[in-house]
Design goal:
204 residues, alpha+beta, four-stranded antiparallel β-sheet, 6 helices, 4 strands, globular, binds flavin mononucleotide
Length: 204
């Protein structure tokens, strides 16, 4: 869990053996889900032109975000790589289908987001399994959902939750990229730990 890293610059581009990919996807598919709804799907994207189109869209969205930043933040952000869409070996797009197992999804009646939480657990399983296999994973969220729906033929009710860049890596850095570049640091555990009641604290 501590070795896992969000990966962008370290991909080698070498192919992922089919058996390894299968194990990683099986680990994702073994995740817990609200009402056993298993609301995820996985779209494996290898096609160069599809990946290039997505990468171009991500770059445009990067500029949208960059335009919102002030001087110091803009300067730090300009040095941070936010995707390895073309450098990785393949993309895995993970989606959420709220209609899977509906209408009576056991445990979702009060918290609609529980379906989305389930998809995130599948992604975390995938990420950890890939790490154990010596692969890097980079989560890309600089995109508009409608763009990715259109690009991959995803139906309107289904939400693309993540584009994951996946592949062999030269190494997994000890420190997150954002920390290394001075964007933000991991908080001490005690800053987020409460006993008995949620106590008031300054958010950082
Ligand atoms: C929901 C989610 C979306 C993310 N989106 C991006 C992204 O678009 N680009 C990126 O470079 N990293 C993205 N990340 C990775 C985070 O920046 C990274 O997890 C964080 O900096 C901590 O680093 P670590 O994962 O290496 O521990 C995302 C992570 C999550 C959980």
């Amino acid at each position: 869990m501590h070795r896992r890293r969000d990966t962008r610059a370290e991909f080698t581009g070498e192919p992922v053996p089919e058996a390894v990919l299968r194990r990683v996807l099986a680990a994702a598919h073994a995740a817990p889900s609200v009402g056993l709804s298993q609301p995820w799907d996985f779209v494996v994207v290898r096609d160069e032109s599809t990946r290039r189109a997505f990468r171009d869209h991500v770059h445009a969205e990067r500029s949208v975000f960059a335009a919102q930043l002030d001087g110091e933040r803009a300067e730090v952000f300009s040095r941070i790589k936010i995707e390895g869409v073309l450098e990785s070996s393949l993309g895995i797009v993970v989606t959420y289908d709220p209609e899977r197992g509906s209408p009576a999804v056991l445990g979702r009646h009060a918290i609609a987001d529980a379906g989305l939480y389930s998809v995130c657990l599948a992604i975390q399983n995938l990420w950890l399994a890939a790490t154990a296999e010596g692969l890097g994973v980079g989560w890309v969220s600089f995109y508009r959902e409608d763009f990715l729906r259109h690009l991959l033929g995803i139906p309107g009710r289904v939400r693309p939750v993540a584009w994951l860049c996946v592949g062999p890596v030269r190494n997994l850095p000890d420190t997150p990229d954002l920390e290394r570049h001075g964007w933000r640091s991991r908080l001490p555990l005690d800053d987020v730990l409460h006993q008995e009641r949620y106590s008031q604290r300054t958010s950082r």
